[in-house]
């Protein structure tokens, strides 16, 4: 993500098979924390011991290690990704760090193999602007009533890092796209200098919609 490296081909960011080395280089860039801090995100959403988090499109687990610390031994973080290489990487890292509350899960764009209503928090980080509606539908299915979906994504303006501006969703576009799945928007805020976060709640009584609008 640092501007000294050549920019990645953004179309590849959303292919199912990511090369591990490339993902580590971009997603674990040591300068990233200064621009996009996981702790700030979890502070904002009140992540507490015992909660269950599902991180859809977890990549290398960038947001998951601090979530794991916060939910503790009685909580759980599911790091979900379509890329088998990255699922294996997160599993290895969790094992090496002795994190028994992090579980790496391989998904398909239309199927996340977890039970419905399992999550207090569902995170979509740097994903919504390139993901199929079937995946968003799955993310909403996993959220318990009253649970919150956090959508972190690139601001729709030129920034030193990130995908081409024309590939991005503004915070308003993201909020509207997610509201179309029946979620209720609570907050929109900047998340570091290059990102925003939209936080939405799943209302009690929301049934999974079979034909929600496609994120624009
Ligand atoms: C840009 S990376 C973001 C990774 C992580 N959220 C972060 O911010 O560090 C996008 C990730 O989403 C995964 N991905 C793409 N489409 C997906 C889908 N439909 N379901 C789950 N994961 C997906 C990719 O394999 C990749 O690991």
What does this structure look like?
This protein is of the alpha/beta class and 216 residues long. The chain has one domain (10-201): Vaccinia Virus protein VP39 (Rossmann fold), CATH 3.40.50. Helices cover 26% and strands 23% of the residues. The chain has a seven-stranded mixed beta sheet, with helices on both faces. Helix 3 links the parallel strand 1 and strand 2. It starts with 19 loop residues before the first helix and ends in a 15-residue tail after the last strand.
Keywords for this entry:
alpha/beta; seven-stranded mixed β-sheet; binds S-adenosylmethionine; 7 strands; Rossmann fold
How is this fold's topology laid out?
Elements: H1 20-27, H2 38-45, E1 52-56, H3 64-71, E2 76-81, H4 84-96, E3 102-106, E4 119-125, H5 133-142, E5 143-154, H6 171-179, E6 184-191, E7 195-201
The structure holds S-adenosylmethionine.
S-adenosylmethionine is lined by residues 13-14, 18, 27, 56-59, 62, 80-83, 86, 107, 109, 125-127, 131-132, 135.
Summed up:
By secondary structure, the chain is of the alpha/beta class. It contains six helices and seven strands. The protein has a single domain (10-201), classed as Rossmann fold (3-Layer(aba) Sandwich).
What's the tally of helices? 6
Number of domains: 1
SS-derived structural category: alpha/beta
The overall pLDDT, averaged over residues, is 90
**What is the count of β-strands?**
7
Strand content: 15-25%
List the uncertain runs: 1-7, 209-216
Q: How big is the Rg?
A: 16 Å
Taken in chain order, the helices and strands follow as HHEHEHEEHEHEE
CATH architecture verdict: 3-Layer(aba) Sandwich
What is the CATH C level class, in words?
Alpha Beta
Main sheet: which strands, in order across?
3-2-1-4-5-7-6
CATH topology: Rossmann fold
CATH superfamily: Vaccinia Virus protein VP39
